[in-house]
Amino acid sequence: MTLREKLALLEKRAADKLAEIKDDTAADAARTIEKDHEGILAEIAEVRKQIAAADAAEDATRAAPRQDQTQPVDVDAAIRKALDTEHKRASEIRTLAKEAGEAELGDEHIDKRSSVENFRSALLEKMMKREAPATDNRSPASVGEEHHEKRASAMREALAHRADPSKPLGDGGREYRGFSLMDMARESLETRGVKTRGMSRDEIAGAALAQRSGYGSTSDFPIILGNVVNTTLRAGYEAAGQTFRPLIRETTVADFKAINRAQLGEGPAFDKVSESGEFKRGTVAEGKESYKIATFGKVIAITRQVIINDDMNAFSRIPQLMGGAAAQLESDLVWAQILSNPTMGDGQTLFSAPHKNVLTAAAFGVASLGKGRAQMAKQVGLDGKTVLNIRPQFLVVPVELETTAEQVLKSTFFADDASKVATESMRKLQIIAEARLDNGISNPAAVSTAIAGSTTAWYLAASPAQVDTVELAYLEGNRGVYIETRQGFDVDGLEVKARLDVGAKAMDHRGLAKNAGA
After folding, report:
1. Is residue 196 one of the residues assigned to a domain?
2. How far apart are the C-alpha atoms of 95 and 46, rounded to whole Å?
């Protein structure tokens, strides 16, 4: 068998071997196939080198001037020189190709016996095409990337399952069940071509946490870890109980500048038109409330020690608690607007006599509820004349009064006094019980000074669809808690930043009424 016949046979074997990797190929099987493929490629490279050396020696022999038969040609020297030249050419091309991630292109030009300069030109052209906008056509390289992404997805699934065993585990995740963080770090490096044999645990953890591993390959381990932290943190955020949601109007703002909300009043009242047919011009009454959002957040550090110690708290309890803390902060901001009785745009406090939303203090019951409902219905517009007929939709109470409120609103019979029975329309009120109304708010991130609560005070609130009550604003595109990851500057590892851009403001006193209770 000639060298060229051997080369053709090896190239066919390499193509057939690579074709064995399918979408459903298991990770271990895929790695075995890839190692076999690398061995065949090494054989191909050696045969190509032998072919190139033989061709170069033959060319040198033809080009040499005819010599006297008594002066024998040093064929061995010529072959050695040709081999050295070919080795240098192939080595330079292979180095350039590896740095550019185009090993296949390098092998092609080595086989074609291209000069180094010609290969540089071809490589530059290929890289320019690679940087051009992507099309729908999949390149052969994308198959390998899909394999890496499937492996990363399986690792994320297995890690999320370790953090919370209630999460389902698919076929891909089962391959990594029982893996420690160190096992996953090693796996991430190995599948990217980094040989970890001989590396210490500290070196493996450090290399896996780096965006660039330092071994010529990009590590996707930080992305896997950041995704798990993000998922756990958001789960903690969503799981936190927020009683204020039905009461408020949610919105987004473009920046951190002061938000000036025009508070539109009622439309101008109609006038009777005289016989001459003259219509008078009307205006819409207008008020204004102003506030702005702020940024709140914390940073979680995922260090080499976390990986080495297999500390799952960094992916389970800590981000879960941080997610819950973000949700609690939102609750503090909203309820502080009601408890702190803030000054409104007209210079009066939210609950004040001029606003006619301070009810006569009385223990909660049918009688006091009826009076409060009537007082809210009599609220007038910004013109001071137009009756708005606002109807409360929510009964807001401290948890100390929750049972009493349920008994009053849900009971249909009182043996001692029929007047204690709530009317049918009263029973339609939605009860919202909030512990902050009892305990007050002391979170320094939400309030500058602690706000006291009350176990007797209760409130009526209208639907935000009828009249503005409290507005909760997020930065546009960042509703709720937002996650960012980066290489640590202050820590040796990965930093995950949880950020919340939010603000709250009471908007219209007419949608709220307060009774201090007794």
Report:
1. yes
2. 16
